[in-house]
Amino acid sequence: MKKTLFLLVAAATTLTTTAQSLYYTDSSNKDMARHTIRKEPLRQEIILPTIDGCKVLKADLHSHTIYSDGHVTPEYRVREAWGDGLDVLAITEHIEYRSNERNMLNYLKGYLPEGTQAANNNITGKTPDEKGILADLNHSNNIALKSAENYGITIIPGIEITRTPETIGHYNALFIEDANTIYAADAAESMRNARKQGAIIMHNHPGWRRKNLEMTDFEKQVYSEGLIDGVEIMNGSEFYPSVVRSAIENKLFMAANTDIHTTTAMDYSNQGHLRNMTFIIAKDARIETIKKALKARRTLAYSFGTIAGDEKLIKEFFLASISFETFKTDKNGKRTMRMTNNTSLDYTLNFGGNPVQLRAFTSRNVTVAKEKELIFTVENMWIPTEEKHPQFKLKL
Ligand SMILES: [Zn+2]
Ligand SMILES: [Zn+2]
Predict the structure, then answer these.
(1) CA of 79 to the centre of ligand 2 (A)
(2) What 3-state DSSP class applies to 117?
């Protein structure tokens, strides 16, 4: 009885193939129905403006997999990034902290000489030994590069130099050639090794496990040596407003990354958020173009609805996101216009009273007296000025 009912439902839905159709009968097996909406994975598209003919690429420059201390494979990380709407992903395993390695060796023990042990797989609190690192640190990047061929997103090969957070800190070397020749007992020497490969170096989560953002001796050394190219002003749920100013002073690109170890579904989308993204303004998504854009500091940081960065670039981004259309002019010349947000991001505006929302792909009506400017601030955009939010005075 149950089976008959099921087949009736399947037959009925096959006849009406609409967008809502839940089942159809599989052409290769007449006794099997399929759920239409589960047939193929879909990518979420995040629509952002173009700025001066450049795209705004959505990037995550910091992520982990099972080949350091993450919970998923590099293949999954790539698929997840594609599904989340990213254009660019860097897989950046910890060089010196690979907590899953012991499990991998246990799993493979039948293949290995007796007594085989990991070397230097957790030196963040210990002195490194003379063996160097035995694991192939390129493995994860190589899998991701192969996997990304099926998704059309750009992988930046990277690695995270991972030392005691209170004194030295963590640094991503991006655009590396060979992860296995970067490690040195001295973290600054690791950075120089990465530089020899043409890598650029990002200072990760500068406030993590710190009591304040005062520079340590190590940071002063590597900053003054010119080894740092960029800095995370946002990492996971952390935001370091004061670093926005110092990034500008030190001529560093600003980034917002997930540093994801679990899944972005759990940490972001299940909670109703887009994942953290570094917006990179570039002509295309080729790896050399992306590298040039980072060196030119053409980036903004996005995290939990806040966009932060350099004032000029942030204003360009906002103005490219919206459009105005006047549809009424009264006898005193007062105009009413439709202000439209053409992006997937929400904006919080303040026209001089309480804040109002201009959510993704919505419009609201605004009025401007004759020959007056439309004046407002964007409260979910953050710039390093006293006002903290960009103010616009538009002659429309
Ligand atoms: Zn880190
Ligand atoms: Zn990390």
Answers:
(1) 19
(2) coil
CA 135 – ligand 1 centroid, Å: 19
d(CA 13, CA 35): 11
Residues 6+ apart with CB under 8 A from 338: 324, 325, 327, 363, 364, 365
What global pTM score does this model have?
0.92
CATH 3.20.20.140 location in the chain: 55-309
> In this structure, which residues have their CB less than 5 angstroms from ion ligand 1?
170, 204
pLDDT confidence of residue 14? 43
The pLDDT, as a whole number, for residue 162 is 96
* Inter-CA distances, 27 with 15, 24, 207, 332, 385, Å: 14, 9, 57, 67, 63
Segments in the chain below pLDDT 70: 1-21, 37-39, 125
Q: What is the per-residue pLDDT across 220-264, written as a single tens digit (0 to 9) for each?
A: 999 999 999 999 999 999 999 999 999 999 999 999 999 999 999
Q: How far is the centre of ligand 1, averaged over its atoms, from the C-alpha of 38 (Å)? A: 36
Q: State the architecture of 321-394 in CATH terms.
A: Sandwich (2.60)
CA 246 – CA 250 distance, rounded (Å) = 6
Fold of 55-309: TIM Barrel (3.20.20)
Q: What are the distances in angstroms from CA 30 to CA 10, 22, 34, 38, 326?
A: 11, 16, 11, 19, 57
Residue ranges matching CATH 2.60.40 in the chain? 321-394
Q: Is residue 153 a contact partner of residue 86, using CB atoms and an 8 Å limit?
A: yes
How many C-beta atoms surround the C-beta of residue 142 within 10 A?
15
**Alpha-helix runs per DSSP H in the chain:** 2-15, 74-83, 101-107, 139-148, 187-196, 217-224, 241-249, 264-267, 287-295, 311-321
Q: How far is the CA of 69 from the centre of ligand 2 (A)?
A: 9
CA angle 261, 266, 267 (to 5 degrees): 65
**Nearest bound ligand to CA 124?**
1
CA of 305 to the centre of ligand 1 (A): 23
Q: Cα of 257 to ligand 1 centre, how many Å?
A: 11
Separation between Cα atoms, residue 197 and residue 179, nearest integer Å? 10
